[in-house]
Automatic annotation (TrEMBL):
Classification lineage: Bacteria, Bacillati, Bacillota, Bacilli, Bacillales
Entry-linked PANTHER family: BETA-GALACTOSIDASE RELATED
Record domain Beta-galactosidase 1-like first all-beta: where: 590-692
Name of the molecule in the record: Glycosyl hydrolase family 35
Boundaries of every Beta-galactosidase galactose-binding domain copy: 826-886
Domain Glycoside hydrolase 35 catalytic, first and last residues per copy: 19-325
UniProt key word Iron: no
Length: 921
């Protein structure tokens, strides 16, 4: 059941089953996901302005509880955490806001936005109807709702939608979620939230549900129609790119061409709102990068670039231009698109390899023509009337075709390409028709009155006998064409562009355009244009710009690239971590980070092991959730990457041995049925362990299967494998376990199991026996990255431990010395550099390249810039200019003590382009 809000009847912001409406006018909700907490406050305006210039009319932001209450009862809403100021800036720029306060946000953000200390509360269970958990959620809502409440549209602000929780449907169904979700819904309503509520992936009575996806628009649309037929259909997260994790390939698989196709798939299906997640990703500064599901060690990199339309540095990308072109199209055809219904296109004849979908309103239609062909082709569609239209379409592309679209009263347009403007510009009704470079397009106008064309340009066109129809055959040159016709006493202007010209043409506001054929005197819009001059290659300014500088200055800036040299780094000093002298707090069993009251950073776990002989032994760490660097007698043995439960072979000498484990908190799970896992080491280690790789040796009938070497087995396949246990009483299976899991014929409980998690740590000690044991489980998928059996005896546990935390920032000056070669042990490196002096026409972005380093953390002037790990895919780390002082201190903590000799600062490529300041941004 859907609850209708009183505010939606006759209010400024309302909706029906087709779209949202503002003051009675249908609007395509085109939202940019931008998180205020992933960049300095000084960068907010530039990023928001660029989103607006790409046609975004709304900003979608999470609110990160752990940013605002980093320690219990210590609230922070200042500086970079001033989310109220962020909402105010959105309002200033005329951008609506979708507010997503959580309390769970996922976002590849540490702990899904929950503060670290919440895990220490006795009896707490996250994302459930749990008294302890909800007590603290309500205290958070008291604070965050106050900030959102006064900035709603109903209160004079621009917040139009508020989200309840986030993606809860991935964990359970709506009925099971009802008590919890209703509590959160009522918590918002009771605190003065009166704008419509939304959910994504899972719903609650009284909220509009949206879908999160990248592909499969039809499936998601059908599901929403079944659940809520009377609400608009929005993509609450349209995944424009993807996140990256350490040791993985670059996540650049979602190309600009595919991004454009997916957007057209959404609107051809009937979605009338898209939130581009992310439009600008930003950075996971400090320890805020999370950990996600899929394997044991999927830890987020520090960059949250996300391959988004705006890069981590706020630069425009080819995806940005694709989003801008799509947004302008959606705005131009909104009168049809937002009040349309799908229709059967079976009567339209198309060649093999071409698909046609359609939406219509009365006689007006949009056809979406898609190609499965391997090369670009001009195909011919035969409409129901028998008329044939040529359509040029690239492989994998969707091209919109307008059929009888009413551009103004009594004038209809048919065209086989996209349009980007359909409004009055400088007193003339203007339509921009654009197509890819080198393409032709058909543009046909049909009117109730005679269409008069001056014929003063060498154009290909035909006219009907009555003069009421004119068909142009345009070629899209590099130079834009301005074609005008007169219909009655009205002038209609057709501006014909290729995509290159379209990408340099900007809609500042309704009726205000610059670039291309437009030469408009922009005053209020100057601040909007300012931050896009970087997109002009080599400083060449698009036509129509009116910079607030002299002509001589502009001429000087057009001469070419501006070469800027980044500050040099040198004179490094270092301080090594003396493991032998680490003084910790004694404990019988190692504690996790939160229990030790340390949110992030590093812990050093130390113990002594007595051995009666020189020997090699396998150390089992049954409870470890982060990377761990192991040292025996001061020498590094290795780095443990595969976590959950882990092992490493160590060598002991006769007598006393020092064992130390350096653990970095690599980020808490940001999404999982096991949210809130302890971080670090939280059980003792065990010697004389054994490790068996379980990926091979599985029986499938008479066949023996290696899980890494198969991708499909027919039917519901149960695999069987045996293992032997000799002298051990503890056993753990860790890795890609499937359900049901049976050991010796008994099913092992897997609480919270989801088959998409693909990594479990399962203690099977209560199910094993000495000698032969049998495992049974269904074949799930391949390849399997890890599936191991770790066994040990409980009597072989290591005794007393001590724990010490490593402080962030600069080490003691007493330990500093000039650095030379690699130190081979964990080391702090420190150097100073001056703030670069940049001319006013240079808009620089600075980054740090950590060539030659291993793994660690970076600080700038005491601010934690995040973790680094030089195993890829991240190579460079953002240095916000807003955080620079006249003289700056850069500190690296490198786990292997690698020399920083090759570390350098550099400006990004666009820094070399001229920047013309047209007003305050």
């Amino acid at each position: 059941m859907h609850t209708t809000y009183a505010a939606n009847t006759g209010a400024a912001f309302s909706y029906d089953d087709k779209s949202f409406m503002m003051n009675g006018k249908r609007v395509f909700l085109n939202s940019a996901a931008i998180h205020y907490f992933r960049m300095p406050k000084e960068e907010w305006r530039e990023v928001l302005v660029k989103a607006k210039l790409a046609g975004m009319n709304c900003i979608d932001t999470y609110f990160a509880w752990n940013v605002h209450e980093p320690n219990e009862g210590e609230w922070n809403f200042e500086g970079d955490a001033d989310c109220g100021a962020f909402l105010d800036l959105c309002a200033e720029l005329g951008l609506w806001v979708i507010a997503r306060p959580g309390p769970f946000i996922c976002a590849e953000w540490d702990f899904g936005g929950f503060p670290w200390w919440l895990g220490n509360k006795e009896g707490v269970k996250f994302r459930e109807y749990n008294e302890t958990y909800l007590k603290y959620v309500d205290l958070y809502f008291d604070r965050i709702a106050e900030i959102i409440r006064g900035r709603q549209l109903s209160q004079g602000g621009t917040v139009i939608l508020v989200q309840v929780e986030n993606e809860y449907g991935y964990l359970t169904d709506d009925a099971s979620a009802a008590a919890y979700m209703s509590h959160l819904r009522d918590g918002l309503l009771n605190r003065g939230i009166d704008m419509p509520l939304i959910t994504c992936v899972g719903g609650v009575d009284g909220a509009i549900e949206g879908a999160n996806f990248w592909s499969g628009a039809d499936h998601h649309y059908e599901n929403l129609v079944k659940k809520q037929p009377d609400t608009p259909k929005i993509v609450t997260e349209f995944w424009s790119g993807w996140f990256e994790h350490w040791g993985a390939p670059a996540a650049t698989q979602k190309t600009p061409q595919l991004y454009e196709k997916r957007m057209f798939e959404a609107i051809q299906t009937g979605f009338t709102g898209i939130s581009h997640y992310m439009f600008f990703g930003g950075t996971n500064f400090a320890g805020y990068g999370g950990r996600t599901v899929g394997s044991s060690d999927i830890f987020m990199v520090t960059s949250y670039d996300y391959d988004a339309p705006l890069s981590e540095y706020g630069r425009t990308t080819p995806k940005y231009m694709a989003a801008k072109r799509f947004s302008l199209f959606a705005e131009a055809v909104g009168s049809l698109l937002l009040d349309s219904a799908a229709f059967d296109t079976a009567a339209i004849i198309a060649p093999k390899g071409i698909t046609v979908r359609g939406r219509k309103n009365g006689e007006q239609r949009i056809l979406f023509v898609g190609s499965d062909k391997e090369e670009r082709d001009t195909v011919y569609l035969t409409l129901e009337s028998g008329r044939t239209l040529p359509v040029m379409v690239n492989p994998g592309e969707i091209v919109p075709v307008l059929d009888g679209f009413q551009v103004q009263g009594g004038v209809r347009l048919t065209t086989n390409t996209a349009i980007a403007c359909n409004e009055m510009v400088d007193g003339i009704h203007t339509v921009i028709v654009f197509a890819k470079d080198g393409q032709r397009s058909l543009v046909e106008l049909n009117a109730d009155e005679e269409i008069v064309h001056s014929d003063d340009q060498p154009l290909l066109y035909t006219r009907s006998g009555d003069g009421k129809t004119i068909s142009f055959d345009f070629y899209h040159f590099n130079e834009s064409q301005d074609v005008r016709v007169t219909i009655g006493d009205q002038t209609l202007r057709l501006v014909v562009m290729n995509t290159a010209a379209m990408d340099q043409t900007w809609r500042i506001a309704e009726g205000q355009w610059v670039g291309g054929c437009f030469d408009v005197d922009i005053e209020a819009g100057e601040q909007l244009v300012a931050c896009l001059s970087e997109s002009a290659v080599n400083g060449e300014l698009p036509a129509g710009f009116n910079p607030v500088v002299s002509d001589d200055e502009v001429a000087g800036l057009r001469t070419g690239a501006v070469h800027q040299k980044a500050p040099a780094l040198g004179d490094w000093v270092s301080s090594t971590l003396d493991l032998a002298s680490v003084q910790g707090v004694s404990c019988e069993v190692p504690q996790d980070f939160s229990s030790f009251s340390q949110p992030y950073g590093y812990l050093v776990y130390s113990s002594q092991i007595e051995s009666d002989s020189d020997q090699k032994t396998t150390l089992i760490l049954p409870k470890l959730q982060d990377t761990a660097r192991v040292y025996v007698n001061g020498t590094e043995v290795g780095l443990i990457r595969e976590v959950g439960s882990s092992s490493i072979e160590i060598s002991l000498r006769a007598g006393s041995n020092s064992l130390q484990i350096l653990v970095q908190n690599m980020g808490r799970l940001n999404f999982s049925p096991y949210l809130g896992e302890p971080k670090g080491l939280f059980d003792t280690g065990y010697l004389q362990g054994n490790v068996v790789d379980l990926r091979s040796g599985w029986s499938h009938g008479e066949e023996t299967v290696h899980l890494d070497r198969v991708n499909k087995l027919d039917g519901q396949v149960t695999l069987t494998r045996t293992f032997h246990l000799d002298g051990h009483d503890r056993a753990i299976i860790v890795g890609a376990v499937s359900k049901p899991l049976l050991v010796n014929g008994k099913e092992v409980p897997l609480e919270g199991y989801q088959n998409w998690f693909s990594h479990e740590t399962v203690d099977i000690s209560a199910f094993v026996q000495q000698g032969e044991n049998v495992i049974e489980m269904p074949y799930m998928k391949s390849p399997v990255n890890r599936l191991e059996l770790l066994s040990y005896h409980s009597s072989n546990g290591i005794g007393e431990w001590s724990m010490a935390g490593l402080e962030d920032g600069v080490p003691s000056e007493a330990g500093l010395e000039l650095s030379g070669a690699d130190k081979k042990v964990p080391t702090w490196y420190c150097c100073a550099f001056k703030k670069p002096e940049l001319p006013a026409h240079v808009h620089a972005k600075l980054k740090l390249r950590l060539t030659g380093m291993s793994k660690g953390s970076v600080w700038l002037n005491g601010i934690n810039l995040g973790r680094y790990w030089q195993i890829g895919p991240q190579e460079d780390y953002k240095i916000p200019l807003a955080w620079l002082k006249d003289v700056n201190e850069l500190v690296l903590f490198d786990e292997e003590g690698r020399s920083p000799a090759k570390v350098k600062l550099l400006f990004d490529e666009q820094t070399s382009r001229s920047w013309v300041q047209l007003g305050s941004i």
